[in-house]
Design goal:
manganese, metal ion binding, globular, about 220 residues, cobalt, binds 5-O-phosphono-D-xylulose
Length: about 220
């Protein structure tokens, strides 16, 4: 599995999203879009109209992370609009299997997300329904939080579980990922890294993406 970096635009300048996308586009594998509804998480960000505009403004595929209630109702529209990946939260979904299948049917990669305190084992039977498992390494809602080391054992368990069922499923981590923490997450088995402040807080966002990629590749022994 190759190392992939997905800069989070939560930490970008929302008044200049097209420019912010362009600032990482030579290096980033994805652009991570945090959709928050102020119900599932205590923050409100953006929704489908902004995603539709962003899709026209960049060639970098969008990795839409839905931190919303009723993802079963809303997720298909993001896939239909052209997002490359759509991730729903397991505990918010009433019918996760149906929704993951619908996301795939509409041509996007389907992701399932777990908060730091949620175990991975109850979702083992859903592995065949997903293209990516997202393990939050902070409580969802805000950028700039501290990486939670307590999630590392879960990353290791998830990696083993995924490899034993379907090694093609990506393992994403999101929250507090930086030059100081990415090696620990990569060693534990993550292969897709969301980074907000570590990229958009840097003088050279594209350079920061490349530095993170090198650190993760070195730590994991993968390219
Ligand atoms: O989903 C979230 C926060 O809920 C993340 O995507 C953050 O936007 C990541 O920001 P940093 O922790 O990297 O600053």
């Amino acid at each position: 599995m190759t190392i992939q970096i997905s800069p989070s635009i939560l930490n970008a300048d929302f008044a200049h999203l097209a420019d912010e996308a362009a600032a990482v586009s030579p290096s980033a594998d994805w652009l991570h879009v945090d959709v928050m509804d102020n119900h599932f998480v205590p923050n409100l960000t953006l929704g489908l109209p902004v995603v539709e505009s962003l899709l026209k403004a960049t060639d970098t595929p969008l990795d839409c992370h839905l931190m919303i209630e009723e993802p079963d109702r809303w997720a298909p529209a993001y896939a239909e609009a052209g997002a490359g990946s759509v991730t729903i939260h397991a505990k918010a979904a009433g019918a996760p299997v149906r929704t993951l299948r619908e996301i795939r049917r509409l041509g996007a990669r389907a992701g399932l997300a777990l908060n730091p305190g949620e175990a991975v084992e109850p979702y083992a039977d859903l592995i065949g329904e997903m293209d990516m498992l997202l393990l939050m390494t902070v409580e969802p809602g805000f950028g700039g939080q501290k990486f939670l080391d307590m999630v590392l054992p879960k990353i290791r368990r998830a990696r083993e579980l995924l490899d034993s069922r379907d090694a093609s499923v990506w393992l994403q981590v999101d929250g507090g990922v930086s030059a100081e923490t990415i090696e620990r997450a990569a060693e534990a088995g993550a292969d897709v890294f969301v980074a907000g402040s570590a990229v958009y807080g840097a003088q050279d966002p594209a350079g920061a993406v490349e530095s993170l990629r090198s650190l993760a590749a070195e730590a994991s022994g993968r390219k």
